[in-house]
Amino acid sequence: MAKPVVIVVGADKGGVGKTTVARTLLDYFSANNVPTRAFDTESPRGTLKRFHPDATEIVDMTTTSDQMKIFDTLNAVSPSVTVIDVRAGLLSPALASLRDIGFLDAAKGGQITFAVFHILGPSIASLDEIAETANFMGGAKYFLVKNFINDTQFFQWDQATYKSYFHRIKDATDLTIPKLNEMAYEQVEVASVPFLKFVANKGTQDEAANYSFVLRGYVRHWLANVWSEFDRIKLTDLVGAGKSTTRGGEK
Amino acid sequence: MTATPVFIICSPRPQVGKTLVARLLSEFLLLKNGRVTSFDINLKEPSLLDYLPKTTETADVIDTMGKMQLMDRIIVNDSVAKVIDLGFHAFDEFFKMTDEIGFMKEAARRGVAPIILFVADTDRTSARGYEMLQRQVPAKALVAVDNEFVVRGELPPAMAGGRVVAISALPVFLKTYIDRLSFSFTGYLRGEKDTSTELHQWIRRNYFSFRELELNLILQRS
Predict the structure, then answer these.
(1) Is B102–A220 a contact, with Cβ atoms under 8 angstroms apart?
(2) pTM of model > 0.90
(3) ipTM greater than 0.85, yes or no?
(4) What is the CATH number of domain B4-221?
């Protein structure tokens, strides 16, 4: 049986694009035929659930019962990949909980593949989270995601600041999410469908939709760029699946 | 169903004759098909809208809304030929956008046939613009327009190697005459009984070139 894979997407800061990245991950796995389930911790009403209702369950990660729902079922359910969209401010407490229940030790021992996508905002406060989160990262694949959704430059103009944060943690991998055209982003929001369905001009029930060709083009181009980043970090290898030769979004 | 042609007349340079080509082509298509829709993205130069207000709409590619309004119209296979007079200031933005949204591929899927008419010049900006188009546009859909009034000599080799439509230079007094807003090429052909006049022959020669261009398009797809 394949080793369970848990991917946590989070940040302690709000509005940095956690759910957007989680959505691109679900689309990526879907296109690569990797069965995936997702948990949305924005209880009681989750954003991720709105876009991926079939694959997503809303949980409250601060409660033991919901922690059990996620982690006690890792070996029992058929999708071997679990994506957890951790709501703002909950990343550090969530990682602490995982440490307390022995999950991080299991990851360190190789029983579970554990990856964290830490979404960074443009502020120093957001960068300060890196050091805090890094304390939990033994045994985990740690990805620092620079989300350019707000056109931020992540202090790349100031090499001293940049290096002091981004090179602080050994084995962390930088990941870049490019900016998506604002109107295209809004249109997908309104449509409440996964990016892949939007590109394919489909509605929530797979019915034919009538989205703008221009906006679909922007989303397709952007999604291809995001996925090329996932390809670069060999995400399918990480979750134990080979990359599909013909992916849905690239047709 | 035959593909709907979309002619995009462009150059990264001002004053090379884009609007003249757009006027000629629009009037030719109107004469031949009875219908044409032209788009004027040329707000900083002499405007197609001023010449052909009944068949021309304005459009812009400055913001996403403008791009949507234009592109969602021209990606439809509705058998109405489209002509886009793309101003030099919009050249980079327009083709950056078409590249990003995969316009050429989607057009092929939907039975729309874009033809890029690149109005040539001998400067470096034009050379770079043409190179960029060669990377983005299939060779059969890229046509260099050799406007003799502008180029005044040989076309740059890179442009001469592909498909070319030549537009011969008119004497200045005739150029002034056709530049009048009230002038119509088809109107002139219909009204002027003497078919031997230089202008008559010039218009017929250009219409014939466009006809050949269309014929090639049909042959390519058959």
Answers:
(1) yes
(2) no
(3) no
(4) 3.40.50.300
